[in-house]
Amino acid sequence: MAAAVAYRNIMRAARVAFEGMTGLQICEAGQSTDHSTGDAPTLLAAQSRIRDEFRSKQALDPKDSTVSEGIEHAMQVAQFLRQNVVQGKKMEGEEKYKLRIHKDTERGDNESIKSSGSGVAGGGCCGGSNKRDKVALV
Fold first, then answer.
1. Is 50 exceeded by the pLDDT of residue 138?
2. Which of 22, 49, 59, 122 has the fewest CB atoms within 10 Å of its CB?
3. Which InterPro entries does this one have (predicted)?
């Protein structure tokens, strides 16, 4: 049962991450429309890999520790796909990309960067450009 939940979760996460509508879809009016948006080859490859991984573990005993580890791994991958994968498409004639950020995309507040100052470890490039560090080395 937990494996089925993990399987559905990771397949949905792949659709969210790669904008999951590929090929012809039937709209509410009953007409078929082409919704080949997103990254269809990547989505299809991800779905194929997910199926292969789950099938390779299908014959395992549910009490086997590798089963629970595999389920946990699938859940973590699903979370990563939903929160950390963002698609970008280059805008025609511009040096800009339009990002597809969705409701599940993790958005940081950058507080850790703001509070650390310059953000460079050791006070500068290679840790030696800080005046205090030079004095300490002499």
1. no
2. 59
3. Complex1_LYR_LYRM7, MZM1/LYRM7
What lies within 8 Å, CB to CB, of 77 at 6+ separation is: 10, 13
Task: Provide the domain limits for residue 77.
Answer: 2-107
Q: Are 38 and 31 in contact (CB under 8 A)?
A: no
Residue 85 domain-assigned? yes
Considering only residues 108 and 30, tell me which one the structure prediction assigns the higher pLDDT: 108
Instruction: Say how many domains are in the chain.
Output: 1
Report yes or no on whether pTM surpasses 0.70. no
3-state secondary structure the chain: CHHHHHHHHHHHHHHHHCCCCCCEEECCCCCEEECCCCCHHHHHHHHHHHHHHHHHCCCCCCCCHHHHHHHHHHHHHHHHHHHHCCEEEECCCCCCEEEECCCCCCCCCCHHHHHCCCCCHHHCHHHCCCHHHHHHHC
Condensed to tens digits (0 to 9), the pLDDT of residues 42-86 reads 899 999 999 999 999 999 998 999 999 999 999 999 999 999 998
Query: Token pair for residue 127?
Result: 């840790």
